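User: Small ask, check this?
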Amino acid sequence: MKQPWWKSAVAYQIYPRSFKDSNGDGVGDIRGIIEKLDHLQDLGIDVVWISPLYKSPMDDCGYDISDYYAIDPLFGTNEDMYELIDEAKKRGIKIIMDLVINHCSDEHEWFQKALADPTCEEADYFYFRESKDGPPNNWRSMFGGSVWENVGGDRYYMHLFGKKQPDLNWENPKLREKLYENIRWWLDRGIAGFRVDAIVHIKKDPTLASREPQWDGMCGLLDCARNYPGINDFLAEMRDKAFTGYDVECMTVAEAPGVPQEELKFYVGENGFFSMLFDFTYSEINLWNAGWECARPKEDIPTTELRDSIYKHILDAQEVGWTAVYLENHDYSRSVNKYLPTGDQRDYHGVTMLATMYMNLRGTPFIYQGQEIGSTNIIFNSIDEVNDISTLNNWRGWTAAGLPLEQKMAGLQYSRDQNRIPMQWTAGENAGFTTGKAWLPINPNHVEINVEAQQNDPNSVLSYYKKLVKARKESVVSDALSLGDFEPVLLEDGDIIAYKRIGETSSALVINNYLKAEHEVTLPCAVKSVVLSNYDDVAIEGDKLILKPYQAIVFEI
C-alpha cells in the first residue's frame, strides 16, 4: 500500500529569528533561510517546519499573530516567502508553517474591532465576559497569573497564554470558517502543511466555572481547557474543511500534550485529525510539576524512566497510526544538556548515541536547528539577556516570592531561550549568524561548535547526522527504519535502549549504550551486518556484544 510522503520524510525545524540574518539587523529572516537551503539539502532534509513568520507585535516571538495573511517585515515580505517555497522545492524540500489558531494578537483587527464595539460580530470571536467582582473565574494562565484581563469597567477577555494573546472562540462557526479560509489560502500558495500550535486548548468548559484552588488560589487548565470533551468535533471539521483535497497530501503535526491513549486513534489513526503529533512525556521528563526552575539533571533521571517514557509513546502510536519523534524544539533546552550527564554534553559518542537512539524510532524524525552539530546550552548571566515571555514572567514571580538571586539565576538557565540563541555557522564574529548585534547572546563555544568546522570532517556530529539520515533512506534497512514496526528488546538491561525495526523487506536492530563505560550485552537475535556505528569497530564474541562507552549501533538482522 502506498504510504503518505511524510512517513518516510526527515524534518527540520527552523526558528527564524535565530537561523540566519541576511541584512545585519541582528534578527534572522527569510532570505537568510534561502541562503542556507543548501545546508539542509546536504543534510538530507525533506521538509522544513518554520516557526511563525506572520505579522506580529512579537510579544511571544510571533506566536501572537496580528495578520494571518502577511509576513512580518522583520522577516521579509510575502514575495520572499513565495521565493523560499520555490527555492526549497528545487532542492526537493517542502515547507510547513506554524498554525497558531487557539489565540491571536490583541493587535489583530478582529480584536481591535471587538474592543471598540462590544456588539460587533468580531466581539464573539473572543471570550469576553462581564464581572463585577474581579476575574470571572480562577483559571491560571500558562504563563502565570489569571487568564482574564480587564479592558475597562466590568469587561474582561480570556487569554490562556500571554495578555497580548486573546483566545479565539471556536464555538463561533463564522470564526472557524475564517480560520479555515486562511489555512486553504497558504496551502494554495504551495506550502505542504502545518505544525499546529496549542490546538488541544481550543475547546473550553462552556460554563467557565472555577475549579478547586491550588497553592496560589488559582487552578490549572488541565480539566477545563485542555482536551476538553467536544474538541473532536472541531478537529474533524478542520480536517475536512481545511486540510483535505490537495494534490500533495497535507502534513499536519499537532502540538498535542495530554491526549489520552484511547483518543489517539481519532488524532493520528486512519483518517485522523492530524498526520502525527508531538508527545510531551519524554521531552518534559526533567521538569517537576512546579515548573521550569525545578528541572532535574540527567544524573537524577534513570535511563529506564526515559526509555519507558519513549517506548510507551511509540507503542501507543503504533497501535493506531503515526507520530513525530524529536529531542529538541524551540520550547526546551538542548537535548545534550537534558539527556547527558553533566560534563558529557560535548562527548562525541554521547551526542551521537542520543541521535542514533531517537532518529531510528518509528515516526517522522524532527531535527531542531543546531542539533545536527551538537549545540549546547549557554550560561545566561542576567535576566536582561533573555527575551522569552514565560521566563520574564517567572522571574517576576520569583522576585515577588522573595527567592534569592542564586535560586533565580539557576532557574534562568532553563529558559526557552536556551534553544533560541543564534545558530552557529562559523567560528567567526557572531558565529556567522549576523553582521550586526544579535538579538540574543551568541554561545561562546561557537568557536569550536559550528557548521563550517564540521562540514568536511568525517568524524563530526554533523557528518554522523548525515549518515543517520542516509541510513533511513538508502541503506539495506531503509524500509525498516523509515516504515517498519517497532519492537523493544533487552528490557532487562536498565542501561541500554535497544529495539528492532521490522519492515516488509528488511529488519534492523538498534542498540544504544547509555553508559560512559564498557558494557556487555547478549544479542537478542542473530545479526547480518553493521549498518552504522558511532565507533569504527564493533566487538562481537559469540552472542556477546561488547559495547564501548556511549556506543550506538544499527545492525541489519
Remarks:
- The longest strand covers residues 94-100.
- The chain has a mean pLDDT of 96.
- Residues 141 and 147 are 5 Å apart (CA to CA).
